[in-house]
Amino acid sequence: MMDALSHLLDDVHFSGAEYLYVNALQNWQFHLAKQTVFYIVLMGEAKLSVSNQLHNLSAGNIVFMPYGVAHCFFDASFSTPIKQDFNLETEFRGARYDPVVLGYGHSEALILAVRCLLDSEMAKPLLSSLPDYILIKDGLSEQGPPWLKIGLEFLALESERIRVGRDTLINRLISMFFIECVRDYVEQLPAQSNTWLNAVRDPYLSPVLSAIHANPAYSWTVADLANLACLSRSSFAERFGNVLGQSPLAYLTEYRLRQAARYLTLGDISINRVSEKVGYTSETAFSQAFKRQYGVSPSVYRKERLSQS
User: Fold this and answer.
1) pLDDT tens digits, residue range 191-234?
2) Where do the domains of the chain lie, and which CATH numbers do they carry?
3) 144-164 per-position pLDDT tens digit
4) Which of 36, 218, 266, 308 is the most buried (most CB within 10 A)?
């Protein structure tokens, strides 16, 4: 059985990243907000201002902004950001091969910025459990994972030339960096932290979450899930509620309906089939449950999402 975090990462459906390179010269600065975005410092140094914190960055550092908190990158020689700066949002146009050049003089830093496309509904438990930003500083150090060091060196080489298959390779590398950022954060969580991510490393709850995410359509009972946790029903229900803030069956229902919302957005299967795929034997019962969670019927939800795509 796959671990629970693997299933959650599968649910994110990370794909179609838009990326650009920032060639930072001297006296430069840029900001971005309301974007799920990665930054990888490929060469040189920079400073980052985010959530009232200031960080000195250098080659090999990775920064992940899960849900678009406002932030600012700027020249490493500055002590604080300047008043006027550049909005990077206007520069994203798919996969860009021409770098965004900021400042003047000689090059001080090269930064890869990747705007991520996530399934925000399916990724909700993960995103709600993450901090404003995640910073990994040991990508090129001896302490960093060997594959991460190789990946960063590979990206630095790719930034210097355009080759066939470059977009696919970069998308896959960014997916790995995303996983590494989340894993790194999970490993550093304090034991008493009551979040979804703390539950994935709980030896009793992790197999339960893994089973639910692997097969949400199964007719799980509290007794079934307690058996997976190797706990009594009462002990399991109490532990699950304390860590996740809801009952096991409420969590199962929410996850089923998030899956249903994804199927409805894809728009290629009937509502009756969607209800079956997420574990409902009655389309009426499914529609009622869906409306309670999303405020509209499945058919209206589908129509609204497809009109926005």
Assistant:
1) 666 677 888 888 899 999 999 998 999 999 999 999 999 999 99
2) 4-188 (2.60.120.10), 202-308 (1.10.10.60)
3) 667 667 777 776 676 566 677
4) 36
The contacts of residue 241 (CB under 8 Å, 6+ apart) are 247
pTM above threshold 0.90:
no
**b/e burial code for range 270-306 (CB count within 10 A of at least 16 → b):** ebeebbbebbbeebeebbebbeeebeeebeebbeebe
Q: Which helix (H) or strand (E) is 48 found in, with range?
A: strand 37-50
Distance in angstroms (rounded) separating the CA atoms of residues 201 and 193? 11
Amino acid type, 21: Y
Please list the helix, strand and coil fractions of the chain in percent, rounded to the nearest 5, in that order. Answer: 45, 20, 35
Q: Which residues pair with 31 in a beta bridge?
A: 72, 87
Please give the backbone phi and psi of residue 135, each rounded to the nearest 5 degrees, phi first: -120, 125
CA-closest candidate to residue 128, choices 249, 286, 246:
246
